[in-house]
Amino acid sequence: MTTMAEQDARTAEAIAGALNVLTGRKLAILTGAGISTDSGIPDYRGKGAPVRTPMTVDQFVADEAARRRYWVGSHLGWRAFAAAEPNPGHLALATLEARGVASGVITQNVDGLHVRAGSRRVVELHGTMRRVFCTHCGQVFDRRDLAVRVETDNPWIQVPENVPLGPDGDVLPESTTDFRVPACTVCGGMLKPDVVFFGEFIPAEKFRDAEQLVRGADALVIAGSSLVVNSGIRLLERARRRRLPIVIVNRGATRADSRATVKVDAGTSDVLRALAETLPDVA
Ligand SMILES: [Zn+2]
Fold first, then answer.
1. Alpha-helical segments (H) within 99-184
2. pLDDT for res 168
3. d(CA 190, CA 210)
4. Cα 192 to ligand 1 centroid, rounded to whole Å
5. Cα pseudo-dihedral 185, 190, 191, 192, rounded to 10
6. What are the tens digits of pLDDT across the range 170-190?
7. How far does the centroid of ligand 1 lie from the alpha carbon of residue 140, in Å?
8. Best label site of 3, 67, 168, 207, fewest CB within 10 Å?
9. Which residues have a beta carbon within 5 Å of ligand 1, which is an ion?
C-alpha cells in the first residue's frame, strides 16, 4: 500500500524529471481521450470503461438501420461535446504553443476542444465531429447547421431522456426506427461525419502532417493516451528513432511506459499546467 503522501511525492518527482528533460526543447504534443475527461467527456478506453463494439464504416454504408442508430448516437454525442468546455490541460497546451515552446498538437480526439482552447496547429488524426461531408459530391457542412436540421426533422431528439440507451451508453435500435437521417442538401447523397470510423485508416496526408510536427520538435509529450491506437505508437517510434526525450502523462499504464524517458502517472490538467507555468520560452 502506498499512502497519498507517498503518491504525491512520487508524482512531484516525476514532474520534476519531466521538466528536466523538456527544458529548452521544442515540444510536439500527442493527446488522447484522457485529456478531455476533465471536460466531462468520458474516456471509453480508460480503466473500468465498458467494452464497446464501435460501428464499422461498412455497416454504416450498407445498413440503413445501422445508419439511423449511428446518427442518433452521434447527434447526442455531438450535443455533449458542444456543451463541454476546454479544461486547464487544453488551455496549457495552447499557451505553450503561443509561447513557442510547443510546435502544435496532434490529437486522437474528435471533440474539437484543442481548437476551441486556442491551439492553432492542430492535427486531428481521427477527424472532427465539427464537420460533416457528403460521400457523393463532397460538399462540407458545419455540424451546428446540421444539428438544427436533425432537430427540426426529429423534434423528439431534443429531449435526450426520450432516447433509451443500452447499458454501455449506446443507442438502442428500437429508439431509432422513426429517425429521419439527414441527406446532402446539394445532391441528396449520403452524409458522413468527418471522423475516422472503426476499421478505417487515418488519411495518409494527415499522418504525414503529424510526422512533420514530430520531425520539427526536440521532444515528444504524450498526454492522456494509453496508446492503444497504433498511430500513437508509430509516432512515438519516430521520436525514439531520433533519440528524442519522450514524456508520457497518463493516469494508469500505457502500452509504451517502458519506452518513455519519463512517465508521469497523474491527471493531464495538473501536469500540463505545471509544464506551462515552469517551462521557459524556446528561442
Ligand atoms: Zn452531395
1. 113-117, 143-153
2. 54
3. 29
4. 11
5. -170
6. 666 667 888 999 999 999 999
7. 9
8. 3
9. 134, 136-137, 139, 184, 186-187, 189
Angle between helices 268-278 and 4-22 (to 10 degrees): 40
Average pLDDT score over residue span 20-26: 97
Whether the predicted pLDDT of 49 surpasses 50: no
Distance CA(53)–CA(40), nearest Å, equals: 22
Number of C-beta neighbours around residue 81 at 10 A: 22
- Beginning with the edge strand found earlier in the chain, give each strand of the sheet holding 127-134 in spatial order: 140-142, 127-134, 191-195
Alpha helices per DSSP H over 183-267: 204-215, 230-241
At 214-270, the pLDDT tens digits run: 999 999 999 999 998 889 999 999 999 999 999 999 999 999 999 999 999 999 999
Compute the distance between CA of residue 35 and CA of residue 175 in angstroms, rounded to an integer.
32
pLDDT digits (tens, 9 = 90+) for 138-150: 999 999 999 999 9
CA distance 269 to 275: 10
Strand 219-223 versus strand 246-249 pairing type: parallel
Q: How far apart are CA 126 and CA 115, in angstroms?
A: 14
CA 190 to centroid of ligand 1, rounded, Å = 7
If you measure from the C-alpha of residue 183 to the centroid of ligand 1, how many angstroms do you get, rounded to a whole number? 8
Cell numbers 468527418: residue: 194
Which H helix or E strand runs over 27? strand 27-31
> Which pLDDT belongs to residue 244?
97
Which residues are designated catalytic? 126
Q: What distance in angstroms lies between residue 65's CA and the mean position of ligand 1's atoms?
A: 21
> Span 64-80, mean pLDDT?
87
